[in-house]
Design goal:
The complex is a heterodimer. By secondary structure, chain A is α/β, with parallel strands linked by helices. Chain A has nine helices and twelve strands. In chain A, strands 6-9-10-3-11-12 form a six-stranded mixed sheet, with helices on both faces. The chains are: A alpha/beta, B alpha/beta. Chains A and B meet through helix 2, strand 7 and helix 3 of A and helix 6 and helix 7 of B.
Chain lengths: 257, 405
């Protein structure tokens, strides 16, 4: 079977913040329908990679390129990337006091719809849409009237991220430790939400420390990152092996390299 | 400084009123404030002297409220316009103070005025023509909201004075709108007396046009069991000072203040507040916000005075500031002066820029930098705007602020 064109291609990416190199040559390619998992110790560069793909202004790409749907997006603004279909689920979703969650969701949904040349939604139509999507993450509509993420529990914040993903219908979603801080039930809800949104045209990158999310969402590929590089790539079994043997086991791969 | 010269040489008026005579006497030997004192040291000297260079004008041009009144229930007054003021119904009564009452009230205040600290009030009373003093006594219940407009006049300095005596057990919503016009200076003083058990929601919205200048002072006396809520907003002034002096005359009263000033270009807007507790069990909750852009300068100085008699005072003063440009300047100094030993007082100040992580979060959801900044600013404004008793829907201040260039 011939593969279609990749959604995302990261080629030999080197990046730094304030002259401190963080990524030291990362390559990863995601095709439609694929689920990738990236694992690795704290501080190995997983979150940085996700932020750089989303266009965080604090990081500089010093070498390499990020191609999204065949186009180099190195110099695109974060909003341009988001509008064109890149979604980053935050490890620590930001609280924005005073900004209504409903209004925030509506403005961002419309930004994406405008890009897709779909009609923008007024308040009433949007409420219908958001209520339908709330079902996916089993959230109460009371969350909509609160400020963005303010006073939300850890689990509620993560569900709000998945709600945003459901509304924005991205081409690729990078979910940074979406499973951290979740109890078993919340993890199931979030995982089931991701599975409902994912389809054979979208790509997903899960950044995680734990096997438990991968029990719910089986990845096609597992990458292990260490010191700003991907040091090993394998199938879903690699995560199981990692769970058993710990990251010390993967240190051997660096030595071999 | 034309005005100062005329005060010095007693050539301000050919026929001054009794009040003007009294104030001129206080200013004549020393007509300027001490520009090195805490109250004045940060004031832009050239803008201040420009303020005093305008020629005096007591006449009023026709002026309208910045939004329509669709409600029969609101009483609207314009200071300086000779419109009938006395109103009454079964429930309430609004009467204009007669000349003797006005003089008595002003004299009572004057006796405690200090040349430096109350310089703005003294200047105001020197410059105010009789027709530009509005004094009202309000009593009763179910009082309709009161909207009072005062405005500047182009190319001149104008003075307006408002005196409101809110009698026992009254409950009043008061919106004061102060409009600067192009190339103008306005001196405005407001005196509010809240008698026992009264409740006042006061909004003070002041904005100007190109080269508007404003000296705005507010004196509030709160008697026991009164509650005073002030929401204020000052923007678009080349030079503005808002001086608030509130005295809880025997403690046991509640004061809540939420104020904001927005500066752009090379504007300077300053807020000075002095809250005095002259008895026990008083409370204060104050937040002042500044937002400074371009090369502008925003100043906040707040002081809370808690003498020995004011035991069990509960006061909080917070200054929150946003710097939007590398060339803008913010000075803030919340301070406490506590003699009483059984009190709860806190104060704090923060100066920050728009939160980068919040901006990135919003941008990562497709909002442009401008949209994200607007949402963030909106949330910064909202706390203050929602505290101003403004007829929402008829006058959308938040949109006005976000749209101004």
């Amino acid at each position: 079977m011939t593969k279609s064109n990749p959604i995302l291609e990261v080629n030999n990416l080197l990046a730094s913040t304030e002259d401190l190199p963080i990524l030291k040559g990362v390559s990863i390619t995601v095709y439609p329908g694929e689920i990738h998992a990236i694992m690795g110790r704290n501080g190995c560069g997983k979150s940085t990679l996700s932020k750089i793909i989303a266009g965080h202004p604090s990081y500089n790409i010093t070498e390499g390129e990020i191609n999204f749907l065949g186009k180099n997006i190195n110099s695109l603004e974060p909003e341009e990337r988001a509008q064109s279909g890149i979604f980053l689920g935050f490890q620590y979703p930001i609280e924005i006091p005073g900004v209504s969650n409903l209004e925030f969701l509506r403005v961002s949904t419309n930004a994406r719809r405008k890009f897709l040349k779909k009609e923008e939604l007024d308040t009433f139509d949007f409420e219908d849409l958001v209520k339908e999507k709330l079902e996916i993450v089993k959230m109460d509509s009371a969350f909509l009237s609160r400020s963005v993420n303010q006073g939300f529990s850890g689990g509620e914040k993560k569900r709000n991220e998945i709600l945003q993903m459901a509304l924005l219908e991205p081409k690729i979603a990078i979910l940074d430790e979406t499973d951290s801080g979740l109890d078993i039930d919340a993890l199931r809800i979030v995982a089931s939400g991701i599975k409902q949104i994912a389809n054979n045209k979208t790509g997903i990158i899960l950044i995680t420390h734990y096997q438990r999310l991968l029990d719910e969402i089986k990845p096609d590929y597992v990458h292990v990152m260490s010191d700003g590089q991907i040091i090993k790539t394998g199938g879903s079994n690699l995560a199981l092996e990692l769970e058993k043997k710990g990251y010390e086991w993967t240190d051997n791969f660096i030595k071999e390299k | 400084m034309e005005i100062i010269e005329r005060i010095k040489t007693n050539k301000l008026f050919s026929n001054p009123t009794e009040i003007q005579k009294l104030c001129l006497k206080k200013l004549q030997s020393n007509p300027l404030p001490n520009l090195k004192s805490e109250l004045w040291r940060l004031s832009n000297k050239s803008k201040f002297s420009n303020f005093l260079d305008f020629s005096l004008n007591g006449s009023s041009t026709n002026f309208e409220f910045p939004y329509h009144n669709n409600s029969q229930n609101i009483i609207r007054l314009i200071i300086g316009e000779n419109s009938p003021i006395n109103r009454s119904s079964e429930d309430y009564c609004i009467n204009e103070l007669n000349n003797e009452e006005l003089i008595a009230y002003i004299k009572q205040n004057l006796s405690s005025f200090d040349q430096n600290e109350n310089w703005s009030e003294l200047l105001n009373l020197c410059l105010t023509f009789e027709q530009n003093i509005l004094g009202l006594r309000i009593k009763g219940t179910k009082i309709p909201p009161l909207e009072i407009l005062s405005h500047a006049t182009n190319d001149s300095i104008n003075a307006k004075t408002l005196i409101l005596i809110v009698e026992k057990n009254c409950n009043l919503d008061l919106l004061q709108i102060t409009l600067g016009t192009e190339n103008s200076a306005l001196s405005q003083s407001t005196y509010l007396c809240l008698e026992e058990n009264s409740f006042v929601n006061h909004g003070m919205v002041a904005y100007g046009e190109n080269k508007s200048n404003l000296l705005n002072s507010l004196n509030v006396i709160q008697q026991r069991n009164s509650e005073y809520n002030l929401g204020s907003l000052h923007f678009k002034f080349n030079y503005a000072r808002f001086e608030i002096r509130i005295k809880q005359s025997s403690g046991n009263a509640r004061t809540n203040i939420k104020g904001m000033q927005i500066t752009k270009n090379d504007e300077q807007i300053a807020t000075y507040t002095k809250i005095e507790f002259n008895g026990p069990n008083g409370s204060l909750d104050q937040i002042n916000k500044s937002l400074a852009d371009d090369k502008s300068h925003a100043i906040f100085e707040g002081s809370i005075i808690v003498p020995k008699i004011a035991q069990k005072t509960d006061a909080s003063q917070l200054s929150r500031n946003l710097l939007l440009s590398n060339h803008a300047q913010i000075d803030t100094k919340p301070q406490l002066e506590i003699i009483a030993d059984d009190v709860k007082c806190k104060h704090g100040a923060t100066i920050s820029q728009l939160n980068e992580e919040e901006l990135f979060y919003m941008r990562s959801r497709g909002l442009t930098l401008a949209e994200a900044s607007k949402l963030q600013l909106g949330s910064f404004f909202k706390e203050i705007i929602s505290f101003i008793p403004v007829p929402k829907g008829r006058w959308d201040l938040l949109n006005k602020l976000l749209k101004q260039d």
